């Protein structure tokens, strides 16, 4: 006896395969919008409550110094990642329409990332020190796209095609465990404040292992959680940060003087002053971030 499929299954079966990604995109858009609105309303209705939050209760996402991470930041990152992914693997590069759409995506991505600091801080910090976040975001996007152009792939130490060629549970278990382990290492590296190591390490896995083992940067969340009660380790992290940042600061000051028309190697005192402004220890959990000195 043949059973009649439900109306929702019949609807899915009637969708052309070429339109399925668009349908999934639309469904994800609608569900995410309503779920986000529900969560935001819940957080707002409990904003004045002093009761301790349970682990499962929605709450605002905050970074160091009380910076509130709005969900638009997560949305921008997901759009950029998915866009680069589709440009990289979706269709044959010989399709002219897709190439034109890729150009428009690149233009739009550049315009959005140039104002990434505005999205993050929700205020015009384009020419302020916090505005450097936009430049960092652009450099990250260029680096990731460049690695993809050169043929590097995320999680490149294994080939996902093995999943299709060998459907055994052993192969699939190895692929899943390797992917989860790699992503866990990447999260640890990013929590240690090593953004470049974490991103490039997704393409060159040994960098993730090195970054996860080495000391955290002193202002990173990892140092905030693990080093604030271990002063010797925090001191080592601060000394290492100054040693690594010194040539970068020297190059930056030299470039600034060169642009001004008077290239000269910067004085050590000026370099130390800049290092003092940029490098600081993370406060203990629950304590506010120390006020930074403004650049002269």
UniProtKB/TrEMBL annotation:
The chain crosses the membrane at residues 20-40, 61-91, 103-122, 134-157, 169-191, 198-216. It comes from the Bacteria. Keywords: Membrane, Transmembrane, Transmembrane helix. The keyword Transmembrane helix applies. The keyword Membrane applies. This is Putative membrane protein [Gordonia sp. KTR9].
